[in-house]
Amino acid sequence: MKTFKIGGVHPEENKISAGVAIKNLALPKTAVIPLSQSLGAPSVPIVNKGDKVLTGQLIAQGTSFISSNIHAPVSGTVSKIDDMMDASGYRRKAIIIDVEGDDWVDTIDRSQEIKQEITLSKEEIIACIKNAGIVGLGGATFPTHVKLMVPEGKKAEYLIINAVECEPYLTSDHRIMLEKGEEVMIGIKLLMKALAVEKAFVGIENNKPDAIAHLSQLAEKYSGIKVAALKVKYPQGGEKQLIKALINREVPSGKLPIEVGCVVQNVGTAYAVYEAVQKNKPLIERVVTVTGKAIANPSNFIVRIGTPVSALLEAAGGIPDETGKVINGGPMMGKAVNSTEIPVVKGMSGLVLMPEKEAKRMKVSNCIRCAKCVSACPMGLAPYLIAQTSEIGQEEMAESLRVLDCIECGSCSFTCPSGRPLLENIRMAKNKVGQIIRSRAK
Amino acid sequence: MHGDQTVRKIMWGVVIALIPAMLVSFWYFGIGALLLTAVAVLTCLVVEFLIQKYLLKEPNSIGDGSAVITGILLALNVPSNLPVWMLVVGSVVAIGVAKMTFGGLGKNPFNPALVGRVFMLISFPVNMTSWPTPLVNRTVLVDAITGPTSLGIVKEGLAKGDSMSDIMTQLPSYAEMLLGNMGGSLGEVSAIALILGGLFLIIRRIITWHIPVTFIGTVFLFTGALYLIEPTQYIDPVFHLLAGGLMLGAIFMATDMVTSPMTKSGMVVFGIGCGLLTVLIRVWGSYPEGVSFAILIMNALVPLINKGFKPKKFGEVVKNG
After folding, report:
1. Which of A130, A285, B106, B234 lies 20 to 30 A from B133 at CA?
2. Other beta carbons within 10 Å of A339
3. Rounded to two decimals, what is the model's pTM?
4. Distances from the Cα of A436 to the Cαs of A110, A274, A425, in angstroms?
């Protein structure tokens, strides 16, 4: 079975919520909509305090090249535009809406009927995606329309759909494939048209046989889409690893997937693209997994953006006593949240409650040079060496060790028997080297 | 999130892998072997504890199992009738000098047990190279019947000008060697017990096959080539595999993670280097056995090997197709 060649680890999968159907979560009383929900520049608000807004109405615009639109996920009154704590742990600008009813913009098709026929042109599809404020829903939140604009001199050959969901615990993509398979397929066709490619690969790890079977069956109806089962190995959802696994091409160091003719989109993004293009529905809600070993009802919720995390936790049965951390994202790459009042944002794929015992850090001991981190690194780096550069304050040495290739998957820290904070130290080195390179360019 | 590997699990895993070899040594050499193993382990633990407490003033880490491994390996590297105090000295050197001086586990450039062994070999050459015959007087501590090791028989015989066929008659059979019924240090005897331990280490992912296989393979091929060229001068390669400390060294000491290279390609180079040096010393050196020296010399080259053999980087070779 296909997989990537270098490195990788096998964390316990713990896909507890895989069998739980997606449920709608009730609307919040107040929605907090951060203006920084995608990579790039924050969106610029176009509503003012006191304005009435409808669900799906544009409330903030992406104005620079890499930025995205934001729409009201609820209807009601804008109560203020203020600094609010978000998932980053910082207080940043957000639009706060007091929810009143749920009145939608009337151009949005809210019916469940599946619209197969693709009528829009390539340019119109991209414009539609841009207007709908769609960003990469796997967690990286790169504006989707930017990825679809292939730079001059490059050519896209393949669309790669990332349905790997290699993070332990998370099941939102899995549920979308099972419950919205048809829509996902149409979304993929739309993306293919936008990129003018003939072929798309959907990479799904083998621990989701039902999703593989379902999409494979659907794929017979859609020409050019091929579903590929992949051997379970973390971090296969890294785009470079996924491309390697599916078509055996290696994205060169420091380059983007388009260098090898690929554009990678998350499967959840494909669903959002379907809704945006076929149903005229902007990105105002998403599927979020709420899970953990001790939680009463592990769930997959469709949640409006701006809903406080606490509401999701409540709906899943509340925070169990022995919980040590609430992680935004998967346990490998996600970050612990420092408040449960932060809102759900476009990039939030799951909330994982880690028991105290597992959340605790291991006692750090000497590096025993076991080389497990070297074997585990999917980018072929020497994590122990890079981490050392920041331990001794010589981060500039990390540049030649190709620290910028690090995809921050955490396989090194995961595998380290001495419990060393390898990824943390590598991140520091990465930041420093990034600064050095930027200052050189000036 | 963290996996389930810890230093403790790795180190105690090595201890478990050494159990078959220890049991064989107790069987062949009796309470002498038992006593030496106990003394070496205890000395290693005490020395590490004292140094951490009074010199380094840091919390002790003797529970991590690494000092236990050093103790067992030291005991497995000496003859069963070695005076106990000599082994105590060797243990102090191994832990005190070769390990703690550099900052403890993970920081030592040389394998501590090997440093201890070589220190004893140089300081007490007579006691370190006269071996009790196995299965004799297992219940008394001072053993009267001693003889040379198989490698020693070959080396001395060739030096005297004996013919290889004469020498062969004085050697134990391969079956005996495989089981361990021959003269030698405690753990240099049974290849089967050592290989069993090695398989355990590989299955538990504590070591990889790279170093043992290339090390043993190189010795086999090199001595095999010599044997094919001049069978009257050189003994056959199977003998070289089963005699002396090759198995013990290749499986348990060359694979010491602290003192071996960080990449698979580096490990292969390291293993081949160990193999070549072992044969050079065994065949042309003045010592009958070369495994310890070979590994220590290669330990010294590890930083260089790490520089030369980097991991294969993703995206370095652009392959489109």
Report:
1. B234
2. 13
3. 0.90
4. 50, 42, 17
Domains, chain A, with CATH or none: 16-20+115-279 (3.40.50.11540), 27-98 (2.40.50.100), 287-359 (3.10.20.600), 372-441 (no CATH)
Residue of A9, A335, A365 for testing the chain B interface, max B β-carbons within 10 Å: A365
- A181, A218 in Cβ contact below 8 A? yes
Rounded to an integer, what distance in angstroms lies between the CA atom of residue B284 and that of residue B288? 9
- Distance, in Å, from the CA atom of A244 to the CA atom of A134, rounded to the nearest integer, reads 26
What is the arithmetic mean of pLDDT over B40-69?
A: 93
Rounded to whole angstroms, the Cα distance separating B179 from B192 reads: 6
Mean pLDDT of A64-88: 94
Residue A105's contacts (CB-CB under 8 Å, 6 or more residues apart) are: A54, A55, A56, A57
Using a CB-CB cut-off of 8 Å, the residues of chain A touching B259 are 369
Instruction: Give me B162's structure tokens.
Output: 């004996």
For B64, phi then psi, to 5°, come to: -70, -10
Residue among B5, B10, B311 whose CB faces A381 most closely? B311
- pLDDT tens figures, A259-306: 999 999 999 999 999 999 999 999 999 999 999 999 999 999 999 999
Tokens 């690194």 locate to A377
Distances (CA, A) of A76 to A29, A103, A404: 10, 8, 44
pLDDT of residue A427: 93
Give me the domains of chain B, ranges plus CATH numbers.
Answer: 7-308 (1.10.3430)
With CA atoms as reference, the chain B residue closest to A246 would be: B321
